[in-house]
Amino acid sequence: MDIETAIWYLGVTANYTYGDASRETERTWTDTFFITIPVNNGKVTESEVYNKYEALIENLRELYQAKNEENKQLLAVEVTTHSLDNENLVCKVIAIFAFDGPTPVTCTFNDIDSYCYSYYWQYHPICDGPNIGSIEVTDAAEETQKRIMRCKGVPMGNYYYSDQVTIPILDPTIYPVNPTIGTPVSNHRYAKLYWNSNAYPDFDGCIPPGDLNFYLTKTKELIYNNINNRGICPEGKSLISIDMWGNEEMINGHQIFEHNAFVYYGILHVSPDPKENLD
Predict the structure, then answer these.
(1) pLDDT on residue 219
(2) Which residues contact residue 238 at a Cβ distance below 8 angstroms, ignoring those fewer than 6 apart?
(3) How many folded domains does the chain comprise?
């Protein structure tokens, strides 16, 4: 078979057999590995593809079993070309897993607690409010991710994703709230993801409740709207997962606090068969 067919077979078969898009969860993790397939005259033998599919599933199983969490499930697999020469096709495999859940449905932030933009900023999640010190190992980025994932909605029945793509958000200023404004003129809700620079007054990494809900709303608009509606969602694809974190960097001599993310999308398909487990 040709190379594109081989890659398609690996991803779709793994997703059809093991991927579960209907899984309710707010918590996910992502792992990556590589598989190498021999190539001869631009073609791959079916036997090699079948062998590498078994190797792919075994890799997934090892990642799955190594994670010490409860209620684990594979959400989706993305298989892409990493490199290709006359003798070998190296495929990159990105696997998204869910764990824990279902959880209490809290889709917004409360109106009393302020969260640190990153857990490592002040080493406690809530920087102002009555619950300060009561929550461990979390931050505004992770809490935003949780609220998106637990409230994104899931289809009924058995589904899987194909044709996954990963879209990075590594510079929030690329996605201004007002597209008519160019260079940021202040820290006040400039971008759809949290962004703060010491070039402007009120530079702070403690995000108040109003801003937390503002950035939550704007992040959801960005990841759910398609590219023709000021969003990043590819046409015909659905959100699989979002991985958010707080980042600190120096740009043009100014210290920046911001939120970054990887957003995973795929085409949603109905699957009539119950999903197999990686146990």
Answers:
(1) 98
(2) 21, 161, 265, 266, 267, 268
(3) 2
